[in-house]
Amino acid sequence: MKKQYVIPIFVPHLGCPNDCVFCNQKSISGEQRMITKEDVEKTIDFYLDSIKEKEAQKEVAFFGGSFTGIEVEKQEEFLQIAYNYIKQGKINSIRISTRPDYIDKVTLKRLKKYKVETIELGVQSANDYILKQSNRGHSFEDVKKASKLIRRYRFKLGHQMMVGLPESTRIDEINTAKELIKLKPKMVRIYPVLVVKNTKLEKQYNEGKYTPLSVVQAVEICKELVPMFNKKKIEVIRIGLQNTDEITDPNEEKSEVVAGPYHPAFRQLVESGLWYDSILAQIKQLNVKVKKVEVTINPQDANNVIGHKKENVEKLKELYNVEMIVKQSDKIKPRKLELNVLEKYPEFLEDYK
User: How far apart are CA 188 and CA 234, in angstroms?
Assistant: First the structure.
């Protein structure tokens, strides 16, 4: 399988008509000024120079803001630059992210002309009340219309959802996942809400009107959402915001994060937690008191099975007095495991034979 690279181009707040309560695009993207076509070319060239695999799949992705809300001339200027690299055989595809209320037939025909392949929609929630509380400026009906239109025009559809929005509950977030699944996206991103400086949410937080999720709470709800998408073969391409100089530990001086479930390895916490639950469930199904167990997995799953800083290994030992040995084998398919009991505790009666 060919390695895939994404070349990110951030267009902070360009085309976005709303100030969502949680959003400060300049902080989230790390981009402090509006970009030019020269910036786009320099960014693409910089990334291409660092990619050594000639056969790798390379995609230019316009993130941030609402790409299809930018004035048409600017859209076409950026797209034309990326399209030139496609014609030269230097990149393979283009991806954009935008708002659901900024999608129509004319827009999609324009994107087709420049060989855009993937369109990601910022959905955030399927609950109109929560969308209103977050000042999104669109309804979930807009999401449904845009998603169906994107699929009809044969683009790859992506969705972005958030957990921990003001007044959102676990049930709301599970319902959002269910509603997105009905719209058949190819991929989804899940973002726990962080309180970022210079946002309306920061003001609400400082006034005691908003309480962010803890890391544990955010991990637990994401652990419920990820299997829902996996079951329908919808790829979860990101869990948590990308770590940057600005999006980092709130205790660091340069951090733009005030509060919320920040963790540098948030996705690993979620995936490790799912592995831990699965392994523990299998151990509990056995009719023996397990002392030492061997878990064989595909090498690509090793880090998540062991857990962040060996958390899974240590938790099993501390809570259940079970020693876990992790073995790797290419014969095991990814996301699968084999569990063998190496040693068990003696039954109570055996002690007195």
Answer: 7
pTM here is: 0.91
CA 98 to chain centre: 16
Predicted confidence (pLDDT) at residue 30 exceeds the cutoff of 60: no
Q: Is residue 260 a contact partner of residue 289, using CB atoms and an 8 Å limit?
A: no
> Kindly report the CA angle at 134 between 133 and 138, in degrees rounded to 5?
95
DSSP string over 236-301: EEEESPPP-SSSS-TTSTT--EEESS--TTHHHHHHHHHHHHHHHHHHHHSSS-EEEEEEEE-GGG
Query: Residue with structure tokens 């937080």?
Result: 205
Q: Give per-residue pLDDT as tens, 115-126.
A: 999 999 999 999
Burial call 61-92: b when 16+ CB within 10 Å, e when fewer: bbbbbbbbbbeeebbeebbebbbebbeeeebb
Q: Tell whether the model's pLDDT for residue 333 goes beyond 60.
A: yes
Structure tokens at 250: 């709130």
For the chain, how big is the Rg over CA atoms in Å? 23
The pLDDT of residue 352 is: 45
pLDDT digits (tens, 9 = 90+) for 162-195: 999 999 999 999 999 999 999 999 999 999 999 9
Count Cα neighbours of 76 within 13 Å in the Cβ-side half-sphere: 7
What's the rounded Cα separation, in Å, for the pair 74 and 146? 22
- Cβ proximity of 81 and 39 under 8 Å: no
Distance CA 229, CA 242 (A): 20
Q: Are strands 290-297 and 235-239 parallel, antiparallel or unpaired?
A: unpaired
Long-range contacts, stretch 139-145, CB < 8 angstroms, 24+ apart? 140/179, 142/100, 142/101, 143/100, 143/183, 144/183, 145/100, 145/103
Question: Pairing mode, if any, of strands 187-192 and 195-196?
Answer: unpaired
CA distance 245 to 204: 24
Would you give the DSSP letter of residue 345? P
pLDDT at 25: 58
Q: Are strands 4-10 and 187-192 parallel, antiparallel or unpaired?
A: unpaired
CA 114 to chain CA centroid, nearest Å: 26
Which value, to the nearest 10 degrees, does the dihedral of the CA atoms of residues 331, 336, 341, 342 take? Answer: 40
Q: What does the mean pLDDT of the chain come to?
A: 93
